[in-house]
Specification:
Blueprint (H helix, E strand, L loop, with lengths): L2 E3 L6 E3 L1 E4 L20 H13 L4 E3 L4 H4 L1 H8 L9 E6 L7 H15 L4 E9 L1 H9 L2 H10 L3 E8 L3 H10 L4 E5 L10 H10 L3 E5 L13 H7 L6 H10 L6 E4 L4 H11 L9 H17 L19 H13 L3 H13 L12 H5 L6 H12 L1
Parallel strand pairs: 3-4, 3-10, 4-5, 5-6, 6-7, 7-8, 8-9, 9-10
Antiparallel strand pairs: 1-2
Helix pairs in contact: 1-3, 1-11, 3-4, 7-8, 9-12, 10-11, 13-14, 13-16
Length: 380
């Protein structure tokens, strides 16, 4: 397992971070289960296997898996595993209305996680609105106090907005790390490569989320892209990870793994993913993939699901996924078939009332209302 220094701090971490937002689930959970729909037996086996094979950065959040991910980790990291990892979780900024909320949520999270401290504590999904909340509710003062009394060890933020705001936030506080969306399709999107380098130059460790763009760079690729990786050793996911890891400024790459096979493959990939290890020929293949996807993608939705629940019941990410897949993979009939299922369930774009709630929370700043109208016209 490759390891990288955690920014300006005096320790290193595994290049692969275990993201706990896409753990395996069961269709019919035990109503008395403390971990909800999470398949505890499979998930704990995966997490502990990863730790036993060199992964020591574990990432979760207050809201993941219907607020059960932290509870799961509190159980999964018993038997000595908690002491072997750096544990990261996040303050749910959309729930913060005052300074006291911060202490209340952190106390709840420590209880869920069955620990007396969080190694890496992030302000979740900062953008313009939540950055305003940070300033109005004295959240930075809270971070200072929580670090001083030992409840958290390192302070950071995850980010979904434009580059100028990213730089403003980086410069506003003595952060230990940040977390940004970064993959070969988002090289110049949001913080992008410029933000990556800006933060690293300031001494911040940089944790990467969405390295596979919500799985879109790993599975179901069109033949024109899949063929780029054939005969080169490794899956499409392997090469997408290698592109991210090629940047020496990258500290940790999070993967939301849902199967043991994914855990094993990613561990193998991260054992060889050294910085600046891709050849010019390999880098040129990514440019070809970028060009193909950019030409065909209709909506840059990453399936984060912050837009849900929609008051009218519109399955917003599903509508966009159906539209994108129909266009990218040239399968219009299949797209219409899937969209009819949403229509029958009253979850299609025709139910949109243009209230704007989804647009106010979308980390990608998508014009969701207009895009839903376009998607509906294309798929009916």
């Amino acid at each position: 397992m490759q390891r990288r220094k955690f920014g300006k701090l005096d320790f290193d971490v595994s290049l692969l971070g275990f993201g706990c937002m896409r753990l395996p689930t069961v269709a019919e959970p035990d109503p008395d289960s403390p971990v909800g729909k999470i398949d505890y037996a499979k998930a704990v086996e995966m997490v502990r296997y990863a730790v036993d094979h060199g992964v020591d950065y574990i990432d979760t959040a207050y809201s993941y898996h219907d607020e059960k991910s932290e509870v799961f980790l509190g159980l999964a990291l018993q038997d000595g595993y908690r002491e072997r990892v750096k544990l990261a979780t996040k303050l749910p900024m959309w729930k913060v209305t005052c300074r006291e909320d911060c202490d209340r949520f952190l106390a709840e999270q420590l209880t869920r996680l069955q620990t007396d401290h969080v190694d890496m504590y992030l302000l979740h999904s900062l953008g313009k609105d939540f950055w305003r909340t940070v300033k109005e509710c004295n959240v930075l003062e809270f971070l200072d106090q929580a670090k001083a009394d030992g409840r958290i060890k390192c302070a950071g933020f995850s980010f979904h907005d434009d580059l100028s705001l990213f730089k403003e936030i980086v410069d506003a506080y003595d952060w230990d790390f940040c977390q940004i969306q970064f993959n070969y399709m988002d090289e110049h999107y949001q913080a992008g490569v410029e933000g990556l380098r800006y933060a690293a130059e300031k001494g911040l460790a940089v944790v990467i989320m969405e390295p596979l763009r919500g799985g879109k760079l790993a599975k179901g690729l069109p033949a024109q892209v899949q063929s780029l990786w054939e005969g080169r050793g490794g899956s499409a996911a392997h090469w997408a990870f290698r592109w991210v890891c090629n940047f020496p400024e990258v500290t940790v790459v999070l993967s939301g793994m849902g199967t043991m096979d994914e855990v094993k493959e990613n561990i193998a990939t991260m054992s060889e993913a050294a910085p600046n290890s891709l050849t010019e020929e390999e880098l040129a293949l990514f440019k070809q993939a970028q060009a193909f996807f950019l030409e065909r993608t209709k909506v840059k939705c990453t399936d984060c699901r912050y837009c849900l629940p929609c008051p009218q019941g519109v399955a917003i990410p599903e509508v966009f996924a159906i539209w994108n897949n129909a266009v990218i993979y040239d399968r219009p009939d299949e797209g219409r078939w899937h969209y009819r299922n949403l229509l029958e369930k009253n979850k299609a774009a025709d139910q949109c009332a243009a209230c704007g709630q989804c647009e106010s929370v979308c980390p990608q700043n998508l014009a969701i209302i207009e895009l839903l109208q376009e998607a509906h016209a294309a798929l009916v």
